[in-house]
Amino acid sequence: MKLAILKEFIKSPRTVGTVFPSSRHLARAMTSGIGLEEARRVVEVGPGSGAFTGHIVEKLGPDASFLMVELNKDFHSRLCRRYPGIRIVNDSAERLVEILEQEGMGKVDAVISGLPWAVFPEGLQKRIMDQIYESLADGGHFTTYAYFQGCFMPAGQKIRKMLHEKFHQVHRSPLVIRNLPPAYVYRCRKNPQGNASSTAAHASSTR
Predict the structure, then answer these.
(1) Residue 64 lies inside a defined structural domain of this protein
(2) Contact 47, 89 (CB under 8 A)
(3) Measured in Å, how far apart are the chain's first and last C-alpha atoms?
(4) Containing domain of residue 81, as a range?
(5) In CATH, what number is assigned to the domain containing residue 137?
(6) How far apart, in whole angstroms, are the C-alpha atoms of residue 186 and residue 62?
(7) What pLDDT shows up at residue 19?
(8) DSSP 3-state assignment of 38?
């Protein structure tokens, strides 16, 4: 799988983002504290090599619905072979709301993102974040990560600002050192009342 990631990074560094697979330590941080054990509908966007997927599946209840959305065709094919029992859509997270409607899922309780936000232009960041927010049920959880060095890049700073403007709660984890590169995890929650206009004013966060 490391060779597969390297191959895709060389082909498209602006969509893969790194040559290193995420560690199990980052995967644990990404899938903890977001209510996966009680969630009924969950989606993973940008699963890539599937570093987080097994940890998600382990936490989900037997009646939960789980969908993955992966744009890269090679990663999509590998994931389909690795997880034959999971519905995996080869499409862009820019169409997440429409994809969920087509799959009969509607609003979801949690979105886990492996997308390389820091390499996306601001317009793409915003379009995908809007789709993720709209796909969440009131009180739903969103989790993503940022590499340590990416936090100091303009794109990384913009995505952090976007999270705080968008979500009712934003918590940044301690730095996950046992990952290459080290990374922070952002755990976000949509306003339980669904009042997006008051989100920024009432957001609580640990930066």
Answers:
(1) yes
(2) no
(3) 33
(4) 22-191
(5) 3.40.50.150
(6) 27
(7) 46
(8) coil
